[in-house]
Predict the structure.
Amino acid sequence: MIPGARLVLLGRQGAGKGTQCVRLSRHYVVPHISTGDMLRSAVKEGTEFGLKAKQIMDRGELVSDEIMGGVVDERLQSDDTHNRGYILDGFPRTVGQAEMLGKITSADPLDLVLDLVVPTDVVLARLAARRVCVDCATNYSVDAPPRYGWVCDNCGGEVVQRADDTPDAIQKRLDLYELETAPLIAWYDERDLLTVVDGLGTADEVTQRLVAAIDVRRA
Ligand code: ADP
């Protein structure tokens, strides 16, 4: 039985976190927890919370730490994450959220935080080309579309451009990343939890680098 893992993946918008988290989640057999996907599900369900979240997300702003901390706390208490661990994608995004995560996981602390690094010009090009399945959140791009029209290969859902992948919202998210999320890199480094991984290259190459970094840490 493959041992579980408790991981956080950091990286700018378009760095490839979503794609790599799906692969790592299969490799280590642990759930992929994407706060962005959780919020988009709430939007799709049309709950009151989802409607509020949609306005914030479409502007490229951040949902409050208190709300996100509550959402993640609840998710990390379920049996699957409790027993096997998790890969967190999109949380924490602020030092306040990292402090909350430290409290939530105090009994079973994180193994490692990976920072997936990709230069800004590359992430801008990737975000402009990104398309996503509205049902299962699989990522595609105009350069690597689904096999048949804009219908998801994985689940048959509709593949569209995300409402927050507009030039204004992309710029806002990248600015907020520098302001709110980049300080986490030093924060985790000081706690000896950080490994930096080059996010350029094919998806397979990046997965191999991530797995190598994780396995060195766990050896
Ligand atoms: P991206 O990394 O491309 O911005 P995500 O799918 O991770 O995309 O998140 C989309 C949006 O969801 C964010 O712009 C933000 O509004 C909201 N969101 C996701 N995770 C968090 C979080 N941890 N804290 C606050 N807001 C969040």
